[in-house]
Specification:
360 residues; five-stranded antiparallel β-sheet; 5 helices; 23 strands; 30% strand
């Protein structure tokens, strides 16, 4: 009798232990799932904020980062999360969200009718994120009898050409020639670029043979070799739809009061007379795109370029100080920042080149 009672008590104890263990496992699993959901929601919300900023300047950007940021194990974090993200509605992305409202850009241009990222019939047609009407024929297209100039983004009458057949306000196939409004072919390398192996001299707008040997050349097919600083990926990323040479650019959105940068170590050992050139296209309401270099691995930085807002790509060429010569600790930094009250914007860099003379 006592033995049977002892066995029963033993079984009761085992049952209680198993019940407690099951409860602990359930709570731990629930906490883990909740933590995962929170992480996924935050990633989706960040991707939506990036998408909204990008759409101010590139309304056709597909915001493909939303496809992965708003999915967990192949399932949306909530129904409609990807759509919310791709329309920039970060405020509607939260746990147990029921979806998003129909999207409408929040601001208008000076006519109080045309919304940001839209076109109107009058010229210039495109309402940019600063509330300004600018030329953007790539997006808004041209009327019949006109042709889009992808450099100036303006529409040119097809019967206005230079002697070689180039439309006015367009680059000739003979670089760096440019057909101006007076139907004259002139050198204009800061817009039309230079032939391979040559660089642009901004003062004369002509091209010269590139000084020295090429140490480093980057067209940003990817960001391999670059280190993300504050505001890690995807703030700085490769952009395949917005570039100078119709390939790729290094591109970053800017969010009010924050600065995002990428770094690259690039030795110049064995070279002197270091030069740096690149194409830049910042579109910032209250901020800067800055290109800097360091001779000591990042302790001290020297700024070569600061730009805030340009309507097109611009070319820049610099001769660096002797501190850059024969230097194993040479480093580059691309910084995109905006003011605290800025509504957004973007920075873009393309065709970055470092050259120098071989030490004799």
């Amino acid at each position: 009798m006592h033995r049977a009672q002892g066995s029963l008590e033993y079984l009761v104890i085992i049952g209680a232990v198993l019940a407690i263990s099951a409860t602990i496992i359930m709570l731990a699993t629930s906490a883990f799932v909740g933590q995962q959901s929170s992480v996924n929601i935050n990633a989706c919300r960040e991707a939506a904020a990036q998408c909204k900023a990008v759409h101010y300047s590139i309304p056709k950007d597909p915001c493909s980062q939303c496809n992965t940021a708003c999915n967990a194990s192949g399932k949306e974090v909530f129904t409609g999360a990807v759509t919310c993200c791709k329309t920039g509605q970060s405020e509607n992305i939260f746990i147990d969200s029921t979806g998003c409202q129909a999207y409408a850009p929040p601001n208008y241009c000076s006519d109080s009718i045309t919304q940001y990222g839209e076109c109107r019939s009058q010229q210039p047609p495109y309402c940019n994120y600063l509330g300004q009407f600018v030329n953007n024929c790539t997006y808004c297209q041209c009327s019949q009898g006109s042709q889009c100039n992808p450099i100036t983004e303006s529409c040119n009458l097809v019967n206005l050409v230079c002697a070689d057949g180039t439309y006015i306000n367009s680059c000739s196939s003979t670089l760096p020639k440019y057909c101006n409004a007076n139907q004259q072919l002139v050198d204009y390398c800061s817009t039309c670029y230079c032939p391979s192996g040559q660089i642009c001299v901004v003062a004369t707008q002509g091209c010269i043979v590139s000084p020295g040997q090429e140490i480093f050349y980057e067209e940003f097919a990817n960001l391999n070799g670059w280190t993300m600083g504050k505001g890690a990926n995807p703030m700085w990323h490769t952009n395949t739809t917005f570039s100078y040479n119709n390939s790729n650019s290094a591109y970053s959105v800017a969010i009010g009061g924050l600065g995002y940068y990428i770094l690259r170590a690039q030795s110049t050992v064995g070279y002197t007379n270091i030069h740096m050139s690149f194409w830049a296209h910042p579109q910032l309401q209250n901020g800067n795109l800055e290109v800097l270099w360091s001779p000591d691995g990042g302790t001290n930085w020297y700024s070569e370029y600061i730009g805030s807002n340009t309507n097109s790509w611009t070319y820049h060429f610099y001769t660096l100080s002797q501190l850059a010569d024969n230097n194993a600790n040479f480093k580059l930094k691309l910084l995109c920042s905006s003011g605290a009250n800025a509504i957004g914007g973007s920075c873009a860099i393309d065709t970055l080149r470092i050259t120098g003379d071989i030490l004799g």
